[in-house]
């Protein structure tokens, strides 16, 4: 993880929070099977030394199921401890405390056959950090290895908060379907200029929640509407980036070749419109 200045909860609080989050915000079973398909090919072509960027349980389980020797790189010991208890496939792991943008300081060149990260680049807050990240990944990846990144892209169909509220009033049942709710929420979080800054490509994930809470406090929406329009786990400040595809790939292609892009084979746009897996190899 890239370090951000926020109040630091205990590892138990991290675990409780993570257990509230659902796919596609975390990797689904289908998403993890895609990881494993890629990892099996990497194992055949290069080897079985893997690095997880962060400590996402689904990523660690995927590497364990494909029998990779796994190392974690995360700046937070509390997060590593919390996520460890949520794994389904137990295996021995090496744990390194540090920043992704300094990976070359912790590992020799050509250390890993696979580097796996779920929504890690979205935590890089400036374009120079993106550059530094891919430079460091290029150093520590083996020549035949793969950098496997799940990336969240900006909303293809922007939605403003007022439009979301009107949609909820017209058809509250739409928002009772979890995938529909996720799709509308994400389209607003990344599509409303009050929440997403197109100049910096950044959003603060609880800004939308705060906006809806003010509407609730003023009596402009009901409590039921507030619950339909928000997610409880996006109640704390956390700044992220959502780079347009052209800008993201321009940076990637300075250091890597895009071997393949995958979209999760799901029928709902909440999964396919936002989340894409990039499989990258060194130039």
Protein described:
This protein is α/β, with parallel strands linked by helices and 283 residues long. It has helices at residues 11-20, 29-45, 57-65, 77-84, 103-106, 127-140, 161-170, 172-176, 178-189, 207-217, 223-229, 245-252, 269-272; strands spanning 49-53, 69-74, 93-97, 112-118, 141-152, 196-197, 202-204, 239-241, 256-262, 275-282. It has a 7-stranded mixed sheet with strand order 3-2-1-4-5-10-9. Strands 6-7-8 form a 3-stranded antiparallel sheet, with no helix packed on it.
Overview in brief:
The protein has 283 residues and is α/β, with parallel strands linked by helices.
Put simply, the count of helices is: 13
Derived from helix and strand composition plus strand pairing, the structural class reads: alpha/beta
Number of domains: 2
Q: Could you state the order of secondary-structure elements as H and E?
A: HHEHEHEHEHEHHHEEHHEHEHE
Global morphology: globular
CATH architecture verdict of the largest domain: 3-Layer(aba) Sandwich
Query: Can you list the strand order of the major beta sheet?
Result: 3-2-1-4-5-10-9
Estimated share of beta-strand residues: 15-25%
Helix content: 40-55%
Give the name of the CATH superfamily of the largest domain. Answer: Vaccinia Virus protein VP39
Radius of gyration: 19 Å
Report the top-level CATH class of the largest domain. Answer: Alpha Beta
